[in-house]
Amino acid sequence: MGHLAKLVEQVAGVRQPRLIAPIWLARLGLPFVALWAKLTGKPALFTHDSISALNNHRHINADKAKRELNYRTRPLEETVADTVEWLKKNRLDIP
Question: Which candidate, 52, 45, 60, places its Cα nearest to that of 23?
């Protein structure tokens, strides 16, 4: 996550978070994040589902898609740049 945060910082021009919490700490904070979101009316910074997605899908293998569908990956930097551009174009906040 640290590498991705640094990459977004470079591409989007926003500061990366000072602290990137380990999964176990984020899980402990879930009730507080949910309460804060409810009190402020803003979306929660993270949810149980977002933590699960980060933790459970760490080792994705695209070999079958490459072999059977001719899928081609591209550099992460290019994907992040396109995502940031899309977010700005659609006037969505970049966290």
Answer: 52
The C-alpha torsion from 60 through 66 and 69 to 71, rounded to 10°, is 80
CB 8 within 8 A of CB 16: yes
Tokens linked to 4: 């991705």
Residue-wise pLDDT tens digits, 52-70: 988 887 778 889 999 999 9
CA 57 to CA 72: how far, in whole Å?
Answer: 19
**Token digits for 36?**
């804060």
Stated pTM of the model: 0.60
Distance CA 77, CA 19 (A): 22
For every residue of 7-63, DSSP letters joined together read HHHHHH--PPPS----HHHHHHHHHHHHHHHHHHTSPPS--HHHHHHHHH-S----H
